[in-house]
Structure formats: structure tokens, C-alpha cells
UniProtKB/TrEMBL annotation:
Protein name: ABC transporter permease
Gene3D superfamilies: MetI-like
Superkingdom field: Bacteria
Organism for this UniProt entry: Marinobacterium rhizophilum
Domain ABC transmembrane type-1: from-to ranges: 95-296
CDD domains associated with the record: TM_PBP2
Transmembrane segments: 9-27, 99-119, 131-157, 177-194, 231-257, 277-303
Coiled coil: none
Membrane topology: Multi-pass membrane protein
Lineage: Bacteria, Pseudomonadati, Pseudomonadota, Gammaproteobacteria, Oceanospirillales
Keywords, comma-separated and alphabetical: Cell membrane, Membrane, Transmembrane, Transmembrane helix, Transport
Record keyword Transferase present: no
Length: 310
């Protein structure tokens, strides 16, 4: 178990190293492009040269990379071109907002999806199975921007039950989270439910489940003790991947509801060519991605002992 975790941590660090090199080469290698983005297209050549020299851009590439990587490790991401403040002053607040949104979404989506997937997989081919499958297919077929418009038309303009934006101008308001969470849950739970249903159906047809039924064990005990643990191995992968999607893939939802989160920040940075903010957002997203995979591997070892002792 310890050896498995050590290998995964080494792979995680290697992945981050490779991504950091690619990111540095893509955004920092052309120093003239960096100077233009920071100082603006109307800056003079002399101003750019003075800025590049003052910020160490005339140093050798390897020295610049290690300085750049060291600043990232220490939490120094530079100054945002768009907001004119240190990137860390914006990044962590926006990341926290997205974590709140992701936590609310996960708290509803995962239990709902697993429950519906289990109910569907336990009675494959039944009316309940067909109905749940139809709901999952319909919800996952509607993109976020379409469901955001539809739900806003119903709950904001027609019924007038919910606010149309989630900007939180007067402080945290859980009511403003309802619409974004509804959109994200509606789009994401179908994938997890369908995967759980397929895995549960496969487990229910296994020989050891049939043997347990023939022995007369209580049905709820068969489901909870024998079937559910094995059925959750495959959906666990999808659940962990949803974290990456909720972190950087919620740009449409955050922008639609004016929610000040990580996804909206990444969009603003891209539109403004804010190179330092883009670099910081990319590295944070990579850190979260590799960390969730590490958690997924540890979870596999508990769900499947064969992985733990192999």
C-alpha cells in the first residue's frame, strides 16, 4: 500500500514537472510576447527592453525556468495584468468560491446518482430501469448553457422564485447557489448514474451474488455487503473525474450566472491575455487533477483488495 502511494506521488510530481515545462515554453519562451502582453501593444521598444532586463528575462532559459518554478512553489505567481494586483490575491478567493459550488453540487449529485444507478441496476430491464435511464439520457444530452437558460426562464422569469444571478454582491447567499447547482447536477449526475447502473447490473449477475441469494441471505445484506462495494469501483473513476470538470469546466455556468469562481477567472484571464494569471490557473488545475487521481488510486485499493495486495 505504501509502495503504491509512493509510486503514485512520484508519477504525480513527474506529471506536474512535464506540464510546467510545457507551460513555460508555451508562454514564457518568447520574451517579446510577454513584454507586449504586460506593457501593452502601444509600449515602445525601449520600455520593453528595460522591463525585460529588470525582470530577468535576458537570463539563460534554464535559469529562468528554475526561477519561475521556484516562484510558483513559494506561491509567488506574479502580478495580474488585468486586475493589477498579485495573482494570489485573486486566485485563492475565486478557487474557494468554486469549491463551495463544487461541494454543494457533489453533495447532491453523487448520492442521487449512486442511488438511481443502484435502483436501476438491481432490476435491469424493469420499468424503473427504463425510466431512470431515460431521465439520465435526457439530462446529459442538454448542455449547460441550454439548461441554464431553460431553468432561468422557469424559476426566474415565470415563477420568480430564484434570483437570476449569483454574484454574491451582498455577501454569501445560499439561495443564489440554487440555479448553478441545479444546472451542474442535472448535467453531471446522468454519467455517474449510468456508470453505476452498468456496474451494478454486472455485479448482480455474478456467481457469488447468485450463490448468496440461493443461500437465503437477506436481500438488503447482499446488496450492501457484497454487491455495492464491487459495483462502486467503476463509478468511483467517474466521480473523481467530475472534480476536474467542476474546477475548470464550469466556465459556462459561472459566466451565465455571474458567479465569481475559478472557471470565470480562467475565462477572464484568457480574454485579457493575462499571462501570469493563466499560468497560475493552469498549474492549480493540474495540481487538482493529479491529486484527485492519487485519491482515486487510494480509493481503488480500499474498494478492491486485489489492487491493494498486488
Amino acid at each position: 500500500m505504501i509502495v503504491l502511494i509512493a509510486k503514485r506521488i512520484a508519477l504525480m510530481l513527474l506529471t506536474m514537472l512535464v506540464v510546467s515545462i510545457i507551460l513555460f515554453l508555451a508562454l514564457e519562451l518568447n520574451i517579446d510576447s510577454v513584454a507586449i502582453k504586460v506593457l501593452g501593444p502601444y509600449s515602445s521598444e525601449e520600455q520593453r527592453q528595460l522591463w525585460l532586463e529588470a525582470n530577468g528575462y535576458y537570463a539563460p532559459v534554464m535559469e529562468r525556468y528554475f526561477t519561475w518554478a521556484g516562484n510558483f512553489i513559494s506561491g509567488d505567481f506574479g502580478e495580474s495584468i488585468r486586475f493589477r494586483v498579485p495573482v494570489s490575491d485573486i486566485l485563492w478567493d475565486r478557487l474557494g468560491n468554486t469549491l463551495i459550488l463544487a461541494g454543494a453540487t457533489f453533495g447532491i449529485m453523487v448520492p442521487l446518482a449512486i442511488l438511481m444507478g443502484i435502483l436501476s441496476g438491481m432490476k435491469e430491464g424493469s420499468l424503473a430501469d427504463r425510466l431512470i435511464s431515460l431521465i439520465c439520457i435526457i439530462t446529459t444530452s442538454i448542455p449547460e448553457f441550454a439548461s441554464a437558460v431553460f431553468l432561468s426562464a422557469v424559476f426566474v422569469f415565470s415563477l420568480q422564485w430564484l434570483p437570476g444571478t449569483s454574484s454574491m454582491l451582498n455577501g454569501f447567499d445560499p439561495v443564489q447557489l440554487v440555479l448553478p447547482v441545479m444546472v451542474l447536477v442535472g448535467y453531471g449526475f446522468g454519467y455517474v448514474a449510468r456508470m453505476t447502473r452498468a456496474s451494478m447490473a454486472e455485479v448482480m449477475s455474478a456467481h457469488y451474488i447468485r450463490t448468496a441469494v440461493l443461500k437465503g441471505l437477506p436481500y438488503h445484506r447482499i446488496i450492501m455487503k457484497h454487491a455495492l462495494r464491487n459495483a462502486l469501483i467503476a463509478p468511483f473513476t467517474i466521480i473523481m473525474l467530475q472534480i476536474n470538470w467542476l474546477l475548470s469546466g464550469v466556465i459556462v455556468v459561472e459566466y451565465a450566472f455571474a458567479y465569481k469562481g475559478f472557471g470565470a477567472l480562467l475565462l477572464e484571464a484568457s480574454l485579457a491575455s493575462d499571462v501570469y494569471l493563466i499560468e497560475a490557473c493552469t498549474m492549480v488545475a493540474v495540481c487538482v487533477a493529479v491529486l484527485t487521481q492519487l485519491i482515486a488510486d487510494i480509493g481503488y485499493s480500499y474498494l478492491n483488495p486485489r489492487i491493494r495486495f498486488s
